[in-house]
Amino acid sequence: MNGLMEEIMKRNLWSSLVITLLLVSSAYGVKVGESAPEFQATDSNGHVQKLSVNRGKFVVLEWHNNGCPYTEKHYESRNMQRLQNEWTSKGVVWFTVISSAPGQQGYVTAQQENEYLKQMGASPTAALLDPQGDVGRLYSAKTTPHMFVVNPAGVLIYDGAIDSKPTTDQADIPSAKNYVSQALEEAIAGKPVSTPTSRPYGCSVKYAH
Amino acid sequence: MLNRSCIRWPGVFFACAVWLVIPVFGSPKSPADEHVQLELISEQNAVVPGKELWFGIRIDLQDGWHTYWTNPGDSGEAARIDWHLPAGYEAGAIQWPYPERLSTPPFADYGYEHQVLLMAPVRPPAQLKDGETQKIAARVRYLVCRDVCIPGQKQLELTLRVNSAAPASPAGELFRATRARLPVPAPPSWKISAASMGDEFVLDLKSGKLAKTPLFLPLHAEQIETAPQVASALPGGVRLHLKKSKHLLKPIPRLEGVVVFASGKAYVVNVPVSQSGKGSHTQ
What we know:
The complex is a heterodimer. Chain A is of the alpha+beta class. Chain A is 34% helix and 17% strand. Chain A folds into 2 domains: 1-29; 31-204, Glutaredoxin, CATH 3.40.30.10. Chain B is mainly beta. The radius of gyration of chain B is 23 Å and the shape is globular.
């Protein structure tokens, strides 16, 4: 009887501990103004990429799913490629992160991702493969796209939407305010970021269930 | 009409064939069509001059698919309706029935499965002649999702005649059922108040009796996390603890949304947010 009670209590303790950990990790993920959490992930060329190695540079994180209509909006219009080009040419590190689980929309092998990058003319610094969703959950990435900007000191300075028009319509891009470019321009000019966060818009990230 | 003229004059068959092809270009079939059907319906089967009438976009979704509330939650997008009405008509805003909380932990969306009617009031001008036909058209842009999302858009139209004594149309039942899901103002005897306390808003609902835990659905996406809400009992009511969204940048003057009870009753919440509640501090 005692053994059983002990077992039940132990189980309850464990499950509440697990629940607490889940709640803590999912509550906010990351917060603008705080240190961006360290991560490590393998890119589509087999290299291990770490956030901390890029200290001293701005880093952009772009959550990606090649089948999501919101991602397609920014790739078929070449808006994303333009941003990647512009900012990497200025020394910014750009990581495209794919957190789709195997079998889910947007999941790709390294080879498929390299073909996609070539076909789309995309030029991120690296495309990180995150099929377990570890980096995604660490950052509480909600949507594709969901954008983050980390400053050279490793502090998160932007968390949110790519721009101000939450639609799938490419025609909305020219008149939208691009929050990533705005954050980078302002931070590079030594100004505070005027929109440090916004509600990200898009498809839900297709995490493993 | 088209078929008949094709049969009557075989010589114009080619012209008919072209005619049949044109609509394919004019209104391309969307991949979303497989999973969702949209129809523009009217509550009444005629227009009464000067008298408000209700139109609705009926959205029928295949099992497993959903579309979104005005605040879609963590992902997705609400449908948009652009009305194309005859001169002198005025359309009001969509009246959103309260949605379901569609949860995929740790995230959640607010939306509808199976069927929803997005209804809006339209006021025709007072000077209309009985018997005239009126074309009501709407362009609907929407998103449907299951494990994947598909955007769609549809051009819908409906023709009604002007009739000063309009009987109800068969669609009336769906409008009535949908009205039962529209949030209504809370009874005047209720006390509703909100305060900003640290990283949460607290919403106090005092109806005089202890209600089963309600769900608060914020009208604006960037204010409150979609996480499950914690409730605590208050004398004569309930307090909901609403975690502030990390995307909320400044204090909000009012808390706007809908509170849904287990009974299926939904009430409008639109109250000022006290920034200096007991033990609270402003953002």
